[in-house]
Amino acid sequence: MKTFKIYQIDAFTKEKFSGNPAGVVVNADGLNATQMQQIAKELNNSETAFLFSPHDNNSDGSIRYFTPQSEVPICGHATIAAMYAKAIEDNLDSCILRFKTQVGILPFEIIKEKEDYQVIMTQGKFELSPTFDPIINQQILSALGLDYSDTDKRCPIQIASTGHSKVMIGIKSRDQLNSLTPDYNSLTNISRQINCNGYFVFTFDSDDRDILTYGRMFAPAIGINEDPVTGNANGPLGGYLIQNQIIDFKGNLFEFKGKQGEKIDRLGVVNVSVTLENGLPSIIKIKGNATIVFKTEIEI
């Protein structure tokens, strides 16, 4: 029997019971995939992160992510949560940790300020897929309960990824964003066709000058009907906006804040930065706050 330490962390917020909850097992050495899947199912967050000791000098450890149904390659909010829990557990000063993930070794920056922490996650390589044909577009819109006239004409329906892909769907109205009632079975079926599990619907309809976009993210194919605040959607959104020249921007650094979770009363804010090289997205980072909801132990 071994005792494993589990944190429940709300990410992208400083208020308990808001933002996006993630489980974190900070001392996961010895757990196998079946046990990790069982723990993730028991905690029933959209993702649970598992931190392992390093096997060599190339990294500070490895990290794996599980939804209640399956393992996923990378997760934004669970990374913020995991690094926050590690910083608390080890009483870290400001530092950069390099962790092995399924999308490569990534640097995660921990910023200590006033006895608390923020975390900056460097995401994986940005990729933008070709636009869909009109039939797939219509299937996606119909499954979301949208018409073509509801969409923002500047925004092609397109898969963007920094390691865990999302379909980007820009619409005109925040009221409509918050009234969406997707057909989850249809979205699941479309996911099998397009090999992408997440649908990020966003709008520029913001009444806050500090918030560029509001969004909602649906991923029923991996057991997440709606994810509260999604780092791996807001981050790729930054690259998508730049590469499609949707944002009128000059310079080598594009920064914005995306808000999510309004409809389901779990508001959180993701700070996104996109470094450009030759006018194209090169490095995408997300920054977020976090707060501990509870800490417990389990013997296995």
TrEMBL record:
Cytoplasm in keyword set: no
Pfam families: PhzC-PhzF
Positions of the catalytic residues: E47
Matches recorded under SUPFAM superfamilies: Diaminopimelate epimerase-like (SSF54506)
InterPro entries, alphabetized: Phenazine_PhzF-like
One MF annotation (Gene Ontology) recorded for this entry: isomerase activity
Tree of life domain: Bacteria
UniProt keyword annotation of Isomerase present: yes
Swiss-Prot/TrEMBL keywords: Isomerase
GO cellular component, one term: cytoplasm
Family: Belongs to the PhzF family.
Name of this protein: Phenazine biosynthesis protein PhzF
Source organism of the structure: Chryseobacterium glaciei
